[in-house]
Amino acid sequence: MAIKHPNPPKNRARPMRFPEPIPEASGPVSIPQSRVAQNYYLSAKTEPQPSVRVELLEGQYAGEKLWRVRVDNGNARLVHRPGLGDRGRSAHEILDDIGKRKETERHLEASALKAGEKAARSPRVQRPIGETCFEYRGALHRPLVVFPPDQRDLLTDSSWPWRLIGKVTTSDGKGASGALVGGRIMLTARHVRPVNSIAARNWWIQFTPHYFDGMTPFGTSFVSNNEFYQFTGDTGFDLAHDYMVCRLFEPLGDQIGFFGAEEYSEDWNDDEVWASVGYPGDLAGGERPFVQVNCSIEDSREGGDGQTLETEADLNHGDSGGPFWAWFNNGDPRIIGVTSDEVDFATNYVVTVSHDLDNSVAGGKDMVELIRWARQNWT
């Protein structure tokens, strides 16, 4: 079970319920562009000499002039930037790197918001979300579990911290979700790793905050390094450690902010305070972010210093790695876990088995420590 605090420390913050989402009119979504530079990568034998041409087009978009920017790359090829390092280590090795932890250190203080910017407690959304589609990338997929009624909404809000969650794509063709937790640190699920490409020594992972219908409003970055807890063969331990941190080539978190993190406590069981955000494949083909607020965690199970959290939030393939987070009463948005898998928390009564199908979220003290390690070591 998760750690329980019968007499929680007075200075320990608590998660708070979200105000109701703000519904917007259905129709095209206009996502504001940040001043983050857009990068792309070319492969060529000699230094590329791209040419740029800007043209004014007929018509307008949102009352503004419409322009086309044409880039001619010559003989260079557009490529993905390959990763450099992928490492799984034991909890003991990671903790040795950051020093002996104190029992009172159950959270990371810093989420980050630039001075002068405003935060949005409740997200702007569009309703209804339309019909659920079970076809994704040419194949039929079964949701983790979508519990009727489906309570997911299209996330149209690009304010902080909603913009910190984004789409993850990999060289194995996987689509997933992730969130910024440091200046150049992205948190996602460990099972998102492109294991086939890694074995072939030619892999890449790309993260795009608030990706929306092919748009990259806050830039995008490929991953240079992964760090995660290595597999042990113990199913309970491995499920409770289904997260990894990724070092980004581009410091997106320094530019648009990042989340804090917190170890989950049983004191919060059944509290309807958590937000789940991700890119589910059954809605818009994983091309748009969807949100469900005021989800609850029913219970938790420990695997070492990791946790498997049980939830009936509506999730699907593509949500993997997306954060479960809340506003805490000190004004800090903190992640308590990432979407992991579908799990049957069955109880065996000798003569019969009672099945309890839930979605699982991986979190715990070791997730917090992994993020702390990344903040200390990746600049």
Please characterize this protein's 3D structure.
The chain has two domains: about 15-25 and about 80-375, Beta Barrel (Thrombin, subunit H); about 40-80, no CATH class. The protein is globular and about 60 Å long. The chain has helices at about 90-100, 195-200, 235-240, 250-255, 365-375; strands spanning about 15, 20-25, 40-45, 50-60, 65-70, 75-80, 85-90, 105-110, 125, 135, 140, 155, 165-170, 175-180, 185-190, 205-210, 220-230, 245-250, 260, 275-280, 290-295, 295-305, 305-310, 325-330, 335-345, 345-350, 355, 355-365. Strand 24 and strand 25 form a beta hairpin. The two termini are about 35 Å apart. The strands form six sheets. Strands 1, 2, 8, 9, 12, 19, 20, 21, 22, 23, 24, 25 and 28 form a 13-stranded mixed sheet that branches. It has a six-stranded antiparallel beta barrel with strand order 13-14-15-18-17-16. The chain has a two-stranded antiparallel sheet with strand order 3-6. The protein is mainly beta and about 375 residues long. It contains five helices and 28 strands. Helix 1 packs across helix 5.
